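Students often ask why we bother encoding 3D structure as a string. The short answer is that it lets us treat folding as translation between two languages. Here is a chain of 75 residues written in the first language.
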Amino acid sequence: MEPLALIAAAIVFGLGALGAGIGNGLIVGRTVEGIARQPELRGTLQTTMFIGVALVEALPVITLVLAFIFLGKAG
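And here it is in the second language, the structure alphabet:
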């Protein structure tokens, strides 16, 4: 396997994980702000937050698949 393919796969996966981390931080932070402003909407906001976090967490899985595709084509 070529070293450049391994580096490319690592970069793809790393950027995907970084993006998911930033996205989750923004989602949770804004949810906490919303709950602080309107505590009566806590249940609705938390439900929406969990759906958003689940969608954002799909990003690292997709990048992992892309990293394996890069490795498969290189080797």
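Translate back mentally: The radius of gyration is 17 Å. Keep this in mind for the problem set.
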